């Protein structure tokens, strides 16, 4: 059995609240669903004897199938990202040391991802010269050593980036609410703006700067973060009121998809057709079902059931917010990831050699090789 609700429904959901084991759907035109002349709760319920048959019917008739696949190298070879291990403490030398450390332990190929703290300011989309004054040579060195180089990207422009902030304001490129407020708050800034991807000119302006990064210093692709609508002020004001507010997410992910088959995104709304990896939200470095190791299975299942088949299970061992992962957690995470679409490292298994009584490096390499097969 599955229930599919139309994209235009101003949907509110109550599950296991008033009555355990039951779900209630309601259509109501209150914030963030505004400026609608009519409200309709439009849905279908399909019942089949076989769960697989029901799922395939939902995919084929309602959710849609991807038009292609992510690059096979993203499946076969690990992604190595700076984020969990280094957080914002990165520069040219650290990135090169990270890459060389991986190579020295016998891992060839792969995708090296430069995460947060590379920008001059959030929204500049240019490398900061204090930490990345030699980025062209850094990228060249990585590519000479058979790395694909990707970069962390977000859809915000902070007021500290005065040139881009002022330009976006002058041209109406930032998402606004019904009162004309264009401010946005996200995890790195309280004084920011979210690019309005429902406007093609704004999307092109944002994307053009990424294309420059591909030309120089030669970035191969991007890790696209955020994209949800909850960073801007509510209720939102978009021209397409009946697909608002989630049309912002749809248009953002569609804009990201133009950058090819090496990308990853972490949000989506009716974007199952895109041939891209969709990343799980940041995982905690613990064993739990809430957001730790055990939640890999439930999150993967939920995303698959909603039509997102190519799921990136975030970083092995979690993000290290608060508690850092133990060696045993790293190994168990690797084993769980082995039969998922992709493997992504930041914490390096050999960093735990002295803290465990087993061959953590050998076990890790065994399962990476099994995944590649």
From TrEMBL:
InterPro entries: Alpha-glycosidase_related, GH, Glyco_hydro_31_TIM. GO terms for biological process: carbohydrate metabolic process. GO terms for molecular function: hydrolase activity, hydrolyzing O-glycosyl compounds. SUPFAM superfamilies: (Trans)glycosidases. Pfam families: Glyco_hydro_31_2nd. Residues 83-370 form the Glycoside hydrolase family 31 TIM barrel domain. Coiled coil: none annotated. Keywords: Glycosidase, Hydrolase. Belongs to the glycosyl hydrolase 31 family. This is Glycoside hydrolase family 31.
